[in-house]
Amino acid sequence: MESIFHEKQEGSLCAQHCLNNLLQGEYFSPVELSSIAHQLDEEERIRMAEGGVTSEDYRSFLQQPSGNMDDSGFFSIQVISNALKVWGLELILFNSPEYQRLRIDPINERSFICNYKEHWFTVRKLGKQWFNLNSLLTGPELISDTYLALFLAQLQQEGYSIFVVKGDLPDCEADQLLQMIRVQQMHRPKLIGEELAQLKEQRVLQTDLERVLEGSDGSGMLDEDEEGLQRALTLSRQEIDLEDEEADLRRAIQLSMQGSSRNVCQDTPQSSSTNLTSEELRKKREAYFEKQQQQQQQVDPPGQVSYPCERPTTSSERLGSDLAGDVMSEEDMLQAAVTMSLETVQNNLKTERKQ
């Protein structure tokens, strides 16, 4: 595919792209096509002048814009036809009654030029395969031999005018290379507009995400809700991607310890989380909750006692006890560790809001 010359759409220069894609090179520029259009305009003016320069038809002709080109870069079929005559090529209307009577199989032709509502594009055979070289596509589109006739029939049904290019096309690298090999195309090229729309949507999503992360007040500081959302998203997006299941489990335990590191570091010295055994994890959890109960009893009114049995059992305790008892599979322990880390983040957020 890389050897195929394919000019993409710029402005309304589809006639230029059509010719260059047909000839497989930068053979024509807007200046050269404009020169051909001006020459055709002058020839038409001379023919109109034969009826008299004072005639109403001649004066009306002079007031009308050129029918061979406009300011946007559009060029007529006459301009394209005259440009191809330089190369000894001729255009024949494919869907004319005269050509249809010949009953020529399209697969036996070499190239087609298609037009609909001032848009021109080329369909050409390179090597032994057909390609749609429409400048509105992001790249050449492979067309199978069996689909070619159906493709042209569909264009005719949609109102396209199709011209057969007769004559010997100039040699090109792509034609020589594809004579020896056949290419395959897994994905159809997109329209340029579709690609731009997807890029625009991605930029909008990225901008919205940046606004959320920067904060609504513009100061770069997140409020409590946004900060909590960011933490939860960050934690949930962390991928546990180590080499074996044992390493995965250690990473999950480390993740769960990070969620409560702000509280634990003030009360209990920490060892490396990757070196914790299941028994050490269980003991650490129990010590932590006992410390929390003692602090709660200090702030409770006289006569009121908080009983340990009234404290709900969290997923972190269940993970510790299950690890100690070895009743869970390593996959279950990994899932429980991730759930535990999310609950720990939520509990910390609630504590911070109360303070």
TrEMBL record:
Compartments, as annotated in UniProt: Lysosome membrane; Nucleus matrix
Identify the GO cellular component terms for this protein. cytosol; endoplasmic reticulum membrane; lysosomal membrane; mitochondrial matrix; mitochondrial membrane; nuclear inclusion body; nuclear matrix; nucleolus
Sorted UniProt keywords = Hydrolase, Nucleus, Protease, Repeat, Thiol protease, Transcription, Transcription regulation, Ubl conjugation pathway
Molecular function terms, GO-annotated: ATPase binding; cysteine-type deubiquitinase activity; K48-linked deubiquitinase activity; K63-linked deubiquitinase activity; ubiquitin protein ligase binding
Give the positions the UniProt entry annotates as the active site: C14, H119, N134
One Pfam family, short name: SUIM_assoc
Function according to Swiss-Prot or TrEMBL: Deubiquitinating enzyme involved in protein homeostasis maintenance, transcription, cytoskeleton regulation, myogenesis and degradation of misfolded chaperone substrates. Binds long polyubiquitin chains and trims them, while it has weak or no activity against chains of 4 or less ubiquitins. Involved in degradation of misfolded chaperone substrates via its interaction with STUB1/CHIP: recruited to monoubiquitinated STUB1/CHIP, and restricts the length of ubiquitin chain attached to STUB1/CHIP substrates and preventing further chain extension.
| The protein, known as | Ataxin-3
Please give the organism: Dipodomys ordii (Ord's kangaroo rat)
- Gene name of the encoded protein: Atxn3
